[in-house]
Amino acid sequence: MKEKTIVTAAITGSIHTPTMSKFLPITPQQIADDAVLAFEAGAAVCHIHVRDPKTGQPVSDMNLFKETISSIKKRCNMIVCITTGGGLGMTSEQRLIPVSTFSPELASFNAGSVNFALFHALSKFKNFQHEWESKYLAFTEDFTLSNTFKSMKEFAETFNKNKTKPEFEVYDAGMLNNIAFLIEQGYVKKPVYIQFVMGVLGGITPSSANLLFLVDYAQKLIGDFVFSVCVAGRAQFPLCTQSLLIGGNVRVGLEDNLYLNKGIMAKSSAEQVAKIVRIAKELGIEPATPDEARKILGLKGLEKVKF
């Protein structure tokens, strides 16, 4: 274990739809408000997607991004990690626009292609608030989140140009090979920051053994890295706790899990942050401040972003 851990709050994402939770932040104001509450609860980083304020559909609208992240920056100094996942089905060019536009300190970087499936959620809901929701979920039965070596090279070049640190999203073990290759070819420099993403249908399943395997494999392949863990669904807190025990960082938030406890929906990402902070403190681990997280990750600093 270590004395400090970086807590990330993934505020709204592009996975859950409005019908799934009335607490899901939709508008720029709601997303920014939840991010600031998460900061006050102990999060050093917020992971930001945006949605159509009227329908809640994930979009890649630069005006909505600007409104959201500018509001966060005015109110606190937390690290803003902007998505390059965007909404499912967006092109690589669309997904990279937030990095080239806002030059954030940190942004997500999917480390390979994955069958990113959400269609199985259709069986849990009979009626949706918006027409787009069922179509969006059904679409993923025949969808691959494509991240080819060509596109990853283009991503790395854009990140390097903007001095934006990649947060490598690793959905399965083979993606660690991809990161090692990017390092070998000179597109990425160590130390790297890896987010182990577990529980997405199409990626690795969440289990204690799988997390230990991923960390061990990364140590053998890459060696010099910082890691965090995020988990889709009910295994969020058990595996985030395991991450704390083995020297990792953690991500919680409504993007990944809509619940605080069994049968109890989280009213905000901040509630989940407060819970994982309580767990960490019981283990003698304090949440890193944003500036401490900047040092751990080697970020360029808030004064060098373009928002």
Which SSEs are present, and which pair or pack?
Layout: E1 4-5, E2 7-10, H1 28-41, E3 45-48, E4 50-51, E5 58-59, H2 62-75, E6 79-82, H3 92-102, E7 106-110, H4 131-139, H5 149-162, E8 165-170, H6 174-184, E9 192-198, H7 208-221, E10 225-231, H8 236-245, E11 249-252, E12 259-261, E13 264-265, H9 269-282, E14 286-287, H10 290-297
Parallel strand pairs: 1-14, 2-3, 2-11, 3-6, 6-7, 7-8, 8-9, 9-10, 10-11
Antiparallel strand pairs: 4-5, 12-13
Helix pairs in contact: 1-2, 1-9, 3-5
Structural notes for this entry:
The chain is α/β, with parallel strands linked by helices and 307 residues long. It contains ten helices and 14 strands. It has an eight-stranded parallel barrel, surrounded by eight helices. Strands 1-14 form a two-stranded parallel sheet. Helix 1 (28-41) packs parallel to helix 2 (62-75). The chain is globular.
